[in-house]
Design a protein that fits this description.
alpha/beta; Rossmann fold; 11-stranded mixed sheet; two-stranded antiparallel sheet; 15 helices; about 35% helix; transcription regulation; TF_GRAS; nucleus; transcription
């Protein structure tokens, strides 16, 4: 995917909750009308934007004979609010032996063959024909036009396709660097695969496993693992420059937050000055953490948190750079890998006899989770089942709010074609709590699985909106009556309405994350610095400097989510002891010794040095 044509110029798809609202506000300014504010908005943190924009819902299907594919595009409405690459005795549901060929797809890799979208909304390829009604006939064998690069050319990107993209200057409070990039109205021509991409995801032969797939099982006769394998020792911390005095940056940060909370600007500015002297984006973990939090405190003190957060989101970081930074992160940290393995394993063993599997993926993003599952399904005895995926994402800005989620569907369709898995894809770009059950297109007799990994933290709760979007989404899940609900969350307590309390919890949470990266990635690693800026930096800015409905980083603990899920009418499935043992062995053998994999109350817990950061569990209707 990193080698997709024009990828360097495409905006990243990672969460950007305020960019679309800001773009709409600029349009209101041009026509001389006042942008409608949101209810409950805090005047100290800028205007909240509510907008109705087109919603695209598309479906693609690949028949078992692969003689053709179809695509449909129908417009409705997308209510855009945020857009942001968080006890019973029962028998275990996954006691089946683990397959020796269970595989895992790295989240940084995916297929990139795209078919062009014409201006009339039809989809075709080099051998297909579009008749203007959204139906396209094609031959799968002519779908791929491969083009392989040498290892030294991995950074090269083809620049063909859309030219003359426009950048419109933003005029919000003098933020000159804040720009709004329009999405292209039409997609680029059929893309070529690079040698790197082919090695990472696409097999050279039908029976060959993708080289990027992680084989996490231990041999059948060797379940125990050696603690000495793969251990990494923490590096000694570097001294803070020429300063001999020890500075407690965490205490200074908390004192500064208290001063800002009490509106003691003079003391807050003095403390910020001290923090700036001893913090650096290039230092050790505590120095980088202090630098990140100081930026957020300064923005809150100046009342520019929302504007700065929007400006950070609007920076012209290419999707390729974001994916490279994300790839560096997952190579050093097992959190996302373990969560995906847990979800895919749960699904595979629950669908061993299903003829049709329908996955409703809340927050599909680039779809990195599913190639490994598709590969496993292709090897199932008796032939693969039909796979239906409903990919749900938040709308992107521009003329095609569902463009990227549709691209995800085309990539997955290509992978299913290669492995002879019948496939159908439905793309929905809409505010999650406004999705209706009929839009999911659930059919009778199919195995329905709802999947949501780490994205529920961006839903507003009852402290902001009386009708909680979190509970609304969980009610939708329950209404779908799934055979399984796979839920992974960011375990955090920094969702309190009181600023100082929220600040303390966020400080403790991100201290563990910065320390984890400091122990597993070099301090001069450019990808680490980019990841900390683009992911952690923006999250901290939102948590500390934004309020009301503009604060979209709202994680809860796994125990709080357990209460919500049970209230919605769900019950937990027990963990598979064999899977837990093998995951623990994998983490102990391949990653730093301070990574934690544990379990509590049927939740799989992951953390760093005893602090739980992520949690995963499987649910069914009660």
């Amino acid at each position: 995917m990193l080698m997709e044509e024009d990828m360097e110029q495409k905006p990243c798809m990672f969460h950007d909750p305020l960019a679309l609202q800001a773009a709409e506000k600029s349009l209101y300014d041009v026509i001389g009308e006042k942008y409608p504010p949101s209810p409950g908005q805090s005047s100290s943190f800028g205007d909240q934007f509510l907008v109705d924009s087109p919603e695209n819902e598309s479906s693609y299907s690949v028949g078992s004979d692969y003689g053709g594919s179809s695509g449909s595009n129908s417009g409705s409405s997308a209510d855009v609010h945020w857009n942001r690459e968080v006890g019973e005795s029962k028998a275990p549901f996954m006691q089946m032996p683990l397959a020796t060929d269970f595989v895992f797809q790295s989240p940084s890799m995916s297929s990139s063959q795209l078919s062009p979208i014409q201006e009339n909304g039809t989809m075709s390829n080099g051998n297909g024909s579009g008749d203007g009604n959204g139906v396209v006939s094609s031959y799968a064998g002519n779908f791929v036009v491969p083009n392989f690069f040498s290892g030294s050319d991995l950074e090269l990107q083809f620049k063909r396709g859309v030219e003359g993209k426009k950048n419109h200057d933003r005029e919000d409070d003098g933020f000159e660097d804040e720009r709004s990039n329009k999405q292209s109205a039409v997609s680029v021509d059929e893309t070529e695969l690079s040698e790197m991409f082919d090695k990472l995801l696409v097999c050279n032969g039908r029976d060959e496993k993708p080289s990027c797939i992680l084989h996490y099982e231990a041999p059948e006769n060797e379940v125990k693992c050696s603690k000495s394998n793969g251990k990494k020792k923490s590096r000694a911390k570097k001294s803070q420059g020429n300063n001999n005095e020890a500075v407690d940056l965490r205490t200074l940060l908390i004192l500064c937050a208290q001063s800002i909370s009490s509106d003691d600007r003079r003391t807050a500015n003095e403390l910020l000055k001290q923090i700036r002297q001893h913090s650096s984006p290039f230092g050790d973990g505590s120095q980088r953490l202090a630098h990140c939090f100081a930026n957020a405190l300064e923005a809150r003190l100046a009342g520019t948190g929302t504007q700065i957060y929007t400006a950070l989101s609007a920076e012209k970081t290419s999707a390729a750079d974001m994916l490279k930074a994300y790839q560096a992160y997952i190579s050093a940290c097992p959190f996302k890998k373990v969560a995906i393995i847990f979800a895919n394993h749960s699904l595979m063993h629950a669908t061993s006899s299903a003829d049709v599997i329908h996955i409703v993926d809340l927050g599909i993003l680039y779809g990195f989770q599913w190639p490994a599952l598709i590969y496993r399904l292709s090897k199932r005895p008796g032939g693969p089942p039909k796979l239906r995926i409903t990919g749900i994402e938040l709308p992107q800005g521009g003329f095609r709010p569902a463009e990227r989620v549709q691209e995800t569907g085309r990539r997955l369709a290509k992978y299913c074609e290669r492995h002879n898995v019948p496939f159908e894809y439905i793309a929905i770009a809409k505010k999650w709590e406004n999705i209706r059950i009929d839009e999911l297109k659930i059919n009778k007799g199919e195995f329905v699985a709802v999947n949501c990994l780490f994205r529920c933290k961006n839903l507003l709760d009852e402290t902001v909106v009386v009708s909680s979007p979190r509970d609304a989404v969980l009610r939708l899940v329950r209404q779908a009556n799934p055979n399984m609900f796979m839920h992974a969350i960011v375990n955090g307590s920094y969702n309190a309405p009181f600023f100082v309390t929220r600040f303390r919890e966020a400080l403790f949470h991100f201290t563990a994350l910065f320390d984890m990266l400091d122990a597993n990635m070099g301090r001069e690693d450019q990808m680490r610095m980019k990841f900390e800026k683009e992911f952690y930096g923006r999250e901290v800015m939102n948590v500390i400097a934004c309020e009301g409905s503009e604060r979209v980083e709202r994680p809860e603990t796994y125990k709080q989510w357990q209460v919500r899920n049970r209230k919605a009418g769900m019950k937990q499935l027990p963990l598979d002891p064999l899977l837990m043992k093998k995951l623990k062995c994998k983490v102990r053998g391949k990653y730093h010794e301070d990574f934690v994999v544990d379990e509590d109350g049927e939740w799989l817990l992951q953390g760093w040095k005893g602090r739980i950061v992520y949690a995963s569990s499987a649910w069914v209707p009660a």
